[in-house]
Amino acid sequence: MPACARATSMTWKSAGKPRTTAVEPVVRNDGMRPEARLEAAIEILDRLETAQSSLEDLMRGYFRERRYAGSGDRRAIGATVYGVLRRRGELDWRLSKAKCRCDNRLRVFFLTTLEHGPGLAEGPHGPELPDEAEREALSAAVLCAMETAPAWARLNYPAWLEGEIAESLGASHEAELRALCEGRAATDLRANTLKTDRDRLAGMLAEEGFATEPIALAPHALRLTADGRADQSRAFGQGLFEIQDAGSQFVAQLTGARQGQWIADICAGAGGKALAMAADMDNRGQIFAIDVDAGRLRRLAARAERAGVRNIQTRRQPAEAGWPDDWRGRMDAVLVDAPCSGSGTWRRQPELRWRMTAEGLARNAVRQGAMLDAAADLVKPGGRLVYITCSFLAAENEKPVTDFLVRHADFSVTPWREAAAAAGVTDLPDADGAHDFLRLTPLKHGVDGFFAAVMTRGLS
Ligand SMILES: C[S@@+](CC[C@H](N)C(=O)[O-])C[C@H]1O[C@@H](n2cnc3c(N)ncnc32)[C@H](O)[C@@H]1O
């Protein structure tokens, strides 16, 4: 009998033919049987283990090939997939305490049992049902109390990260992690000031049935107050807004981008922050948007077109490959929105926590340092270097920045409050004033987790 089983095992039923179970869909438009949905969830979770793409892209591709799956099916399968990823620490700990193998099939059965009770439908398109030993282990795992579980299991992150997390987040790490793992991320919009303003946009969206509220953190930010696909609105098609987390909007302002400046955004991606800076510059001056990923740069170009942005030029190259001579030492500000673990976005992308490895984190740190060195070359005397990640881990935040400052005595830290005030930002988030670096968190600010460090190049 597995270690966790103290009481009588639960009753497991499997029917020879499809039957109604607790996982029966509550919405219509459902072409798939409940057991087929479970099989699909397992397949997606298995694919995710070797995929390079995000869960969102993987699921989009999966359902593109399965047109028979209706919206109800997609929603139910998504709920199981996200549920397993959000609770994987807990599921694995309880399964292993019950001496049960941890694979996606058993995780899905266990989650379904916890959420709906121990009944599973059998059918031609369903997964292989648990055998007797597995049923016994699952029953034991259900009885496993979480009170004695370690933090990584209770808060659902990889066990090896425990020390790093405690060091990075300090005393509030449990509360921060809870907000990151359990909270639901909102959808924020940035009013495109090249075409409209926040109030007018809110009015137009209301007419289209999208209720929003302003967010104090960023002057052009609105938050959707109910679920909805704002990117399918007329206002979106007209380029009146971008979808962008308010935290991302706030940190983009730290470059202090103004009309007529030259700004390099050396990890520009699809241009979330570049487009925000272009609007702050009122299309005057120049943004050089660099990235290694041609697809993202194409998306940036399409977004710029829709937004009426005309002062961004894209360039595909690795940041470390060196710069044209006429860029070096010329930029008013350089933004390094560095590739990182994405730990600050775990609410939206729960798969990221299980993709992290200690080796990957160390590799990121080397790459982040190299990017900062490359960026330094571009900054003019008196200009700004802004380093941003969407991570809460010191290994990819404070560490690369402090190492950079040791290598580059001509740069010094500008406290983020000072940088924000100089950029004309009046609504400052409530963050620990003792720190020169900014940390935004879901717990304290209700946005994705961001880190920002502002450095200024000396004049001589
Ligand atoms: C955090 S994302 C950027 C997000 C973007 N700035 C935004 O606001 O939407 C990091 C980007 O760095 C890019 N990247 C990765 N390695 C790079 C390199 N060696 N040189 C330049 N860009 C790189 C990735 O393709 C990715 O688009």
Provide structural commentary.
The protein is an alpha/beta fold and about 450 residues long. It contains 19 helices and 14 strands. It has 3 domains: about 15-150, Orthogonal Bundle (N-utilizing Substance Protein B Homolog, Chain A), CATH 1.10.940; about 190-245, Alpha-Beta Plaits (2-Layer Sandwich); about 245-455, Rossmann fold (3-Layer(aba) Sandwich). About 40% of the residues lie in helices and about 15% in strands. The strands form 3 sheets. Strands 7, 8, 9, 10, 11, 12, 13 and 14 form an 8-stranded mixed sheet that branches. Strand 7, helix 13 (about 270-280) and strand 8 (about 285-290) form a beta-alpha-beta unit. Helix 1 (about 35-50) crosses helix 5 (about 105-115), helix 5 (about 105-115) packs across helix 6 (about 130-140) and helix 16 packs across helix 17 (about 400-405). The structure holds S-adenosylmethionine. S-adenosylmethionine binds near residues 270 and 273. S-adenosylmethionine binds near residues 290 and 337. Pfam families: Methyltr_RsmB-F, RsmF-B_ferredox.
